[in-house]
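Lab channel / #folding
Pinned by the channel admin:
"Please post every new chain as: sequence first, then the C-alpha cells as a reply. Keep commentary short and put observations after the output so the thread stays searchable."

First post following the new format, from NK:
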Amino acid sequence: MNRETLISITTTVIFLTSIVFASCGLSIDNTQPEIDPIDDQTLEINDTRKIRVNITDADIDDTHSINAFSDNLIVAIVLVDGDALTIIANTAGIATITVTATDDSTQDNAISMPVTFQVTVNAPPISKGICVAGMTLQPGESCTYTVDQVPITFYVNPDNQGCRKTDHTYTTEIFGLPVTIKVEFLCADEKITGEEINIRGDNPFDIDFHASKNRDGSWTIDKIP
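Reply from TO:
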C-alpha cells in the first residue's frame, strides 16, 4: 500500500466520522447549559413569589429560553417571565416544579438537565386577634399588631418558625441612594429579639418586638412595641 492510498483511506475515515456526528445531531462546539439549584419554597394560599433562574453556559454568546411546569396545578402554577419564574399558590398541598433551559444552538445538548424544587402551600393562619405580651400561638395561628399605622401579622408556620409579615413598602439609603424595599415576611427558628435586621429606615420590623419558641413548637410573645 503506497502513501497515496493511506492518505485516501484516512480522508475517507475522517469524512465518514463527520457524517456520523452530523447524522446524530451532535456538536463538539456547543456546551450544554446548566441551571443553578433552586431552593424549596413555602407559600400561603393566594401568595405569589418571583424566583430568579440562574443559568451557567460556557458559550457566553448563547441566548436561553426557560421552560417550567408544575406537577400539581391545583396546588401551584408556575409562569415564565424572561429569566424568572412566578409561583402562584392556589390551594394547600405540595407541588414539584421542573425547570429546564434551552440555548439557541439547535443541538441535542442544547437543553439543560432538569432542575426540580418543591413548593409547599399552607392555609392562612387562624387569627387570634390583637397581639399582646404573654400570648402563646400554636402552629397555624396568628395575631396582629400595628406600628406607625402599619399592620404587622405575627404567626407560627407549620415548620414551627415564628414569622412576621406585612405588605408595607419602606425607603432607605444604600450607598447614599434612596431605595424602596417591600418586606413580605421574616421568619426565625428560635427567638425574635428585634436585632435580626440591620437595614435601617421606615422598616416596621426594626421595631422592638420580642418572641420566643417553646419546647412544644408554640411561640410566646414576650414584648410588643
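NK: Confidence is low (pLDDT under 50) at residues 2-23, 198-202.
TO: also worth noting, The helical segments are 3-23.
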